[in-house]
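Researcher: Please translate sequence to structure tokens.
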Amino acid sequence: MDPQAFIRLSVGSLGLRTPGTALNGTKSGSHAFSSPCVCEIRLRGFPVQTTSVPFVSSPETTPPDANTIASSFYLEESDLKALLTPGCFYTNHACLEVAVFTGHKGTHCGVAIKRQQVGTFRLEVGPEWGKGKPAVLFNGWTGIGKNKQENGKPGAELHLRVKLDPDPRYVFQFEEKTKLSPQIVQLQGNIKQPIFSCKFSQDRVQQVDPLSNFSSSFVDSSDIEIERRERKGWKVKIHDLSGSAVAAAFITTPFVPSTGCDWVDRSNPGAWLIVRPDPCMRESWQPWGKLEAWRERGIRDSICCRFHLLSDGPEGGGDLLMSEILISAEKGGEFYIDTDKQVRAAASPVPSPRSSGDFSALSPVVGGFVMSCRVQGEGKYSKLLVQLAMRHVTCVEDAAIFMALAAAVDLSIEACRPFRRLRRGTRHSW
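Model: Translation complete:
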């Protein structure tokens, strides 16, 4: 399998200081920041990322930890080309911008709160971004903003580390929607190479597609009633080119409406078990991960997918939350595992294994992107696109387990659709 070239642009080691100013409110220079600061990290064509900026108590303090990552952008060849090409409204190449603000955006008790911009750091995108080699683009302190202190010394200074790292990925696509048991191909430019096949099946009661229109007169009423209230028995197996099953996912907790409503609620989520063949026992499966899914109601409904790695230990106490993502029920979205993002959201560190085999061992190594899959919204034709970091794949079977996880995410969008009341003798849909 040949990977596609991606680079990871990381911004980290953030810190803010005012030389000669004590940050507890006393002045040895100009002013002290009266509220926490945040920064918006911007790169043209990508969503703005927001994170907090810690204060550094004095100029003599050790610089912030170089290993802390505040933001990451993942760029493929087409992204770099777009950034290096001046557009209609841009005369120069794009810039990475880190804008620092004090105060909070929004309102309090009906009164608008105005945040103040401390300053902005800019770094122009250059040809070196496309060389595919590790590079530190900036590391250290830099003055931001135009304000000077009363004694003539520089104003606020920002510490950051901007780094490029090659991050090649394998890109896969399901040739049809998951329920049609599609072939899975690897994409490399215009080349499609068959890698796996996906086999979807369901129990007898589930032979009626809960998302299709049909006449109730052709289906046993007891089967319809069960199907109307629960979705269970769904299974997906991933086969290699020889026909051997190398990964699977199956529903362990049915998707059923919670009490008093007609949807799968957070209080009682449906769940999938993601498994791989047990090397010690023939025709046996070894648990690898658990995916839970439910519907979040709001102005625009979302499907929440929460993924845990399962410990190999008998106690099961080492299970780790690796991802919890909201996906638009209408438009779809992206499910991903990225330990940098998860670390920033979680209270405790999250390990990033080297391969899917190491996921079972829960071995902590260098963090970053693991996988992503893009899914469509409810009732839309979905051909899954899956990206997988090359460093997490030591063999074809390592990739297969992520295909099973992606298929479970895709099917969860359907399984979390609201349940409808059945009108006997009429055409209907769920």
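Researcher: Any highlights?
Model: The chain has two domains: 8-164, 169-415.
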